[in-house]
Amino acid sequence: MIGHALQSDAITDVVVSTDDPEIADVARQYGAQVPFLRPPELATDLVPSLPVVQHAVEQMETLHQTRYDFVVLLQATSPLCRSQDVAACMNRLAGDSVYASVVAVTTVSTHPFRMKRIIDGNRLINYIDQGFEDMRPRQVLPPVFRRAGSVYASRRRVVMEQQTLVGDPCGAVIVPPETAVDIDGPLDLALARLILANQPGA
User: Fold this and answer.
1) Is residue 129 part of a domain?
2) In 122-180, at which residue ranges do the beta strands (DSSP E only) sit?
3) Angle CA 105–73–150, to nearest 5
4) Which domain holds residue 32?
5) What are the residues facing 154 on neighbouring strands?
6) In total, how many domains does the chain have?
7) Does 8 fall in a domain?
């Protein structure tokens, strides 16, 4: 992930936010800047990404006496992200002033028209009520995407003033599903390792 960020000409400073000195050392070995350690109150499992990113921006702007135009979040849980995905998101954001943010997205394996909810103990209903049971083939359903979890590019004001990582209007960069594995559990980790093992040169 660090290498992909460093390969992108659109990124000026690649920073890793962590509270772990060992992770900080590894990040520096791969070329990232780690001029600060994340404070304990921003290092718990329940802390959302926004205050962590805001802290990093504040620290870096103070250190370098500068003010960034754009902020890009690359999540460590999406290690299959490619440098071209980072560049594509940044180029779209910087090249079109209408967008507040640009996010990497990918196709979904289960269409929301097929998703269900259980209510009243055991009654199955459609998650999206169309008034009928949608049995159309997948190929004719309208395209739907999910956030890939890998690249969130936003204008500084979105993150620091509007207090969000994704502003409106938000642009999209479509990435292949195999680059959008978001590691939330053991199965995701196993899938990521399998994909990496089968890449050329692995």
Assistant:
1) no
2) 123-126, 145-155, 170-174
3) 30
4) 2-108+144-197
5) 71, 101
6) 1
7) yes
CATH at residue 85: 3.90.550.10
pLDDT over threshold 70, residue 201: no
Helices (H), the chain: 2-7, 21-29, 49-64, 83-95, 156-160, 186-197
43, two tokens: 């290092």
SS3 state at 178:
helix
The residues pairing with 102 across neighbouring beta strands, listed in sequence order, are: 153, 171
- 117: in domain: no
How would residue 118 be classed by pLDDT, with cut points 50, 70 and 90? very high
Structure tokens at 37: 């350690």
Supply 50's token pair. 């926004």
How much is the pTM?
0.88
Distance CA 52, CA 147 (A): 20
* Any domain includes 53: yes
